[in-house]
Each structure stands twice: as structure tokens, then as C-alpha cells.
Input
Amino acid sequence: MNSIPLEYFLLVAALLFVIGAVGFLLRRNLLVLLMSIELMLNATNLTLVAYNRFRPENHAGQIFAFFVIAVAAAEAAVGLAIVLAFFRVRRTIRSDDADLLRN
Output
């Protein structure tokens, strides 16, 4: 019935999450930080849907993944608006310069 084992899905999700976490921790560009957060959320969605695939009697994983996608879309919209406002003020999108918004 299921040709791909659950462990493969979890391995890919863990790899995506680690790439997103490393990108979030090491990069200074605000757009890259937002993309790293999206990558971590997608890894979480992959885990939820993979578990749901192996337990088809309950659709809670897919429903929760749908809500995570909705939250990610809202986060992307608000995050891009903040980055755009920050760029208009400081002409840069480096996260190191974000402490200058206190002025």
C-alpha cells in the first residue's frame, strides 16, 4: 500500500528543517531570514502530512497543515511589509541594522 517508508519522509523533513534553521541563524539578510522560516514551516507540514498518510483514519495532520499554511501566508505578507518599510527608511535589508529603528 505505502511504497515509501515513513522514515524517508521524516528524513527529508528533518533535512529541510536543518537547512532552514542554519539559514536563519547564519544569514543577515531579512528576506533570507523569512525564506528560512518558510522552509522550516514547510518541513513541519511535510511531517504532519507524512504521519497522516500512515494513519488515514484521522485527518488531523492535514487539517493542521492547512492552518500552518494559512499562518505562513500571513507571516509572509506581514514580514514582507515590514521589510519594505525598513528598506524605505534605511535603504538596507540587513538584520544587523534593525536596531536602528528606535530613533
